[in-house]
Amino acid sequence: MPSSSAAAANAIRPATRADIGRVWELVLELAEYERLTHTVVGDASALERNAFDDRLIEIFVIEEPGEIVGYTISYRTFSTFRTQPGTWLEDLYVTPECRGKGYGKALLQNLIDRSRERGDGRLEWSVLDWNEPAILFYGSMSATVLPDWRVCRFDL
Question: Record's PANTHER family (predicted)?
Answer without folding.
Answer: DIAMINE N-ACETYLTRANSFERASE, GH14572P-RELATED
